[in-house]
Amino acid sequence: MPENNAELLQMLPFLIIGAGIVISVIIEISTSKSVEILPWFSNILYLAAAIISVTSVSATDSLFGGMLRVGGHPAIFSFIFNVGAILITLNSIGYLKKYGTYFGEYYILLQSAVLGMMLMASAGDIFVIFLGLELMSICFYILAGLNRDKASSNEASLKYFLLGAFATGFIVYGIALIFGSAGTTSIDEIVNRFSYLTDNILFIAGFALFLIGFSFKIAAFPFHMWVPDVYQGSATTVTGFMSTTGKSAAFSVILIMMASILGGAAQNTFAPYFAAIALLSMLYGSIVAIAQKNIKRMLAYSSIAHAGYMSIGLAAGNMESLAGIIFYLAAYVFMNVGAFAVISMVEAEDDKFTDISAYAGLSSRSPVLAGFMALFMFALAGIPPMAGFFGKYYVFVAAIESGFTWLALLGVLSSVISVYFYLRIVVLMYFREADENSAVVTVNAAGYAAVILSGLLVIAFGLVPDTLMDLITSTF
Fold first, then answer.
1. Which residue, 288, 81, 311, is CA-closest to 214?
2. DSSP 294-320
């Protein structure tokens, strides 16, 4: 238990979300209007947790005997998760009605998933990582299949559950081998003894299995097989949530473990693995995305490619690359959430207007949505001065400094390939006439707010990237 009031204040973001979940359950069972109350109550919780997190970045500390870390990187990730959840919640208010899942428990599941992400990013012990991972994953499995009347939703949930459980098996077996060889699950102790532990083949095997399990979670090739079908079959808001904050949470764990091998001989042991998945993920995701006709599947393969770009930073394995990955994750959350917010507003009932062709002539029917969608596509493509460009820039420069110039050049090549399928959406919106297959957009004030806020954050991080980058590097 916390020993004093100062420690309680340090735990406040966790306490806010945790208490909010309990109160939300009470609201859900107490009133028939819970579905109208819970999104705004949830956003109050997320906003409070985000503000407290970002203002306590410099107050680094360990709680519960080192099992939980506060301040520093965990605080930055907590801010990212909660702001991302605010945008998703705003976008969900209007979307759930047409999707057929206008239920209050949806928001409770979002809150529980955010709490799991915060535990993962703040973990000081491998068992806390596992606790947070399972809390987040179980919520994702349920959210993917929330609409039981849709076959695609049921399929998405089942595929995600089966392959997610398979990935968890790797992680659990890896944890068992790490504990068996190290005699501890404390991350600090493992970090301090890492150079000695690498002489033990069981420890290396356990660490490798742990990384493979989380390679599933970040959707890196060849562990990506669940991504396209799950992204397409899930509710668009859920897809946006899984592909952004969920990916960020998984990367936060890899960054925690990678901090233990920076600059040592162990870095050379695992660098080829990260270089391989980076190369394969970038090229596979970018090339296969070109052939997609469904925009959610296109962004699914785009997500695989972005996992590859970030994995370049893992291969580089220096402080600059880790800071670059955190910046990239923040930018990716806001530009991808924004893109899915636009998709959710264009999408009609029964998954109508999810094909790329539905965006033809969108600029004439909804110039605001078309403008922001173009912004998000430019950002995802890495076109300056958007936030996506600086995310790639920081990672590529760090890779060059570590001697991975060839990998950075292939990253640039993959980015050039990706420009085609991102700008294809822009061309359809502005240079094609609408036809009978084109979308008819319904106005949704909360959804527009999510789109606009996402766009402003993408622009802000692009125009003044040093503000966020300085904050990140100050925590090393």
1. 311
2. BHHHHHHHHHHHHHHHHHHHHHH-SHH
Delimit the domains of the chain by residue range. Answer: 263-476
**Structural element, H or E, at residue 63:** strand 61-63
pTM given for the model: 0.92
Mean pLDDT of 378-391: 87
For 380, the token pair is: 């995802």
**What's the pLDDT tens digit per position in 292-310?**
888 888 999 999 999 999 9
As a whole number of angstroms, the distance between CA 370 and CA 176 comes to 50
Instruction: Find residue 69's DSSP bridge partners.
Output: 62
Write the pLDDT tens digit of every residue in 251-268: 988 888 776 555 444 556
Q: How many helices (H) and strands (E) does the chain have?
A: 22, 2
Q: How does strand 68-70 pair with strand 61-63?
A: antiparallel
Q: Are 10 and 61 contacting, i.e. CB atoms less than 8 angstroms apart?
A: yes
Per-residue pLDDT tens over the stretch 460-473: 888 888 888 888 88
Instruction: Specify whether the backbone of 435 is left (phi greater than 0), alpha (psi in -120 to 50) or beta.
Output: beta
Confidence of residue 154 (pLDDT cuts 50, 70, 90): confident
CA-CA distance, 81 to 247, in Å (whole number)? 10
Tokens 């420890």 appear where? 203
The angle that helices 465-473 and 387-401 make with each other, rounded to 10 degrees, is 50
